[in-house]
Amino acid sequence: MSKNRRRTIWRPSKPSWWTPESAATDEARYRSRRRFMQSFALGSAAIALGCDCGPREAATLRPAQPSPPEVLNLYPAQASPSHRIDEVTPENIAATYNNFYEFTTDKARVHELAAGFRTRPWQVEVTGLVDTPTTFDIDDLVRRFPLEERTYRFRCVEAWAMVVPWTGFPLARLLEAVGVQSGARYVRMVTANDPEQMPGIRSQGWYPWPYHEGLRLDEAMNDLTLLATGIYGHELPPQHGAPIRLVVPWKYGFKNIKSIVKIELVAEEPPTFWHTLAASEYGFYGNVDPGTPHPRWSQASERRIDDGSRQPTLVYNGYEEQVASLYPGGPSATP
Ligand SMILES: Nc1nc2c(c(=O)[nH]1)N[C@H]1C(S)=C(S)[C@@H](COP(=O)(O)O)O[C@H]1N2
Ligand SMILES: [Mo]
Q1: CATH (domain of 159)
Q2: pTM to 2 decimals?
Q3: How many structural domains does the chain have?
Q4: Quick one: which of 282, 283, 291, 280 has its CA closest to 316?
Q5: In a domain, 22, yes or no
Q6: Half-sphere exposure of 161 (CA within 13 A, CB side)
C-alpha cells in the first residue's frame, strides 16, 4: 500500500483542485477492497498482488430504459471472425471497474451512480464539414448501420487492461453516409452534459465539461474504429457509455469517449478534455506505446483487471499491423 500512497502525492506542482487519475484509482481500489474485506474477509495475498479479481457485487448490466423490440433483436450481433480473442474479461469485472468521471472518479461505484441514466430518447448530431448534417435518433442509427461483434483488447493509460466483446459499426460507415467535405481533417466528439443526472459534473465543476475527444480523419476512417452500442452481446449499460461510445483499441482508454451526443467534422486539431487538463500527460494521439512512459505510469507492462496478472504492453496495444502506417514517426511522435 505504501507504493499507492506515494503515488497519490505525486506532482505537487498541480493546483489544489487537481485529482490525479492515479489517486482516483487508488481510492476506488481501496474502497472496493474495503467493501470486499468487510463482506468476505479477503486474504492478504490478493491485496499484495494488486488483484481486483475477487467476487464483486452484481452490476447493472443493462440500460435503464427498455428499447423497442426491433432494436433488442439486433443483439447479439454476428461475431466478426477477424476480431476474435479467447481470454475475454468476465462481464461483471468489466462492468464494475469503470472510468466515467461524469458520475464519479471511483471506478468501483460508477455502475451504481450511472444505473438510472436515461439513454432514450437519445440523439446524435453529426455536423460541421459534412455534405448532409444529420441528427440521428439512436434507434434509427442502430437499425441503419449493420451491427457486428468484435472482441478487442482495451488498455487504460493507468496501466490496466481487459479484453471485451463490443457490438457496433465502424465510424467510417456513419461518416460516409453524411459525406465528409474536403476541408475536414479531424473529427470532434462530445459527451452528454447533464449535471442533474451526472453527480460528478456537479461535484467537480473545475473540469472542462462536457467531455470531448477527437481523432484525425484517417484514424476515424480506419476499419478498427468503432461506434459501439453494445457489449457482451447486449446493449451497453450506462457505466460503459450507453447508448453509444467510441472504441479505438490501439489508443489509451481516455480516447474512447462515452455517451456521445455530437460528432463534428473540423479542419483543425480539436482540443481534448485530458489534453486541456494536463498536456504533458495526455497527448492528442494517445497511442499505446510501451516505450514512452507516462509521468505517473511506466507503460512497459500492464495489469489485467480480471486475474491481476501482469503482461508486457504491446505497441499500439497489439494493433500495429492495422495502424502503424498512420504514424510514420512511430506511436508517440507528434506528426
Ligand atoms: N465521457 C467520458 N468518456 C470516457 C471517460 C470519462 O470519464 N468520461 N473515461 C475514459 C477512460 S480514462 C477510460 S479508461 C474508458 C473506460 O471505459 P470503460 O469504463 O467502459 O471500461 O472510458 C473513457 N471514456
Ligand atoms: Mo483511462
Answers
A1: 3.90.420.10
A2: 0.86
A3: 1
A4: 291
A5: no
A6: 25
The sign of the dihedral angle between the CA atoms of 112, 207, 166, 65 is positive
From 258, 296, 297, mutation site for ligand 1 pocket: most ligand atoms within 8 A of C-beta:
258
Distance 110 CA to ligand 2 centre (A): 13
Strand partners, 5: none
Band of the pLDDT at 113, cuts 50, 70, 90?
very high
Residue 6 within any structural domain of the chain:
no
Q: What average pLDDT is seen over the chain?
A: 87
d(CA 299, CA 83): 24
| CA neighbor of 313 nearest in space, from 250, 262, 256 | 250
Determine if ligand 1 sits within 6 Å of the CB of residue 156: yes
In a domain, 222, yes or no: yes
Average pLDDT over residues 9-38: 37
pLDDT value at residue 313: 98
Percent composition of the chain: helix, strand, coil (DSSP 3-state, to 5): 30, 20, 50
Q: Which ligand is nearest to the CA of 210?
A: 1
Tell me the pLDDT tens digit for each residue of 205-215.
999 999 999 99
Q: Is any atom of ligand 1 closer than 6 Å to the C-beta of 25?
A: no
Cβ pair 184, 128 in contact under 8 A: yes
Contacts 24+ apart (CB under 8 A), 11-20: 11/295, 11/296, 17/206, 19/105, 19/204, 20/296
22 C-beta closer than 6 A to ligand 1: no
Q: How far apart are CA 329 and CA 307, in angstroms?
A: 35
Inside any domain, residue 169: yes
Tell me which residue range forms the domain holding 39: 30-308
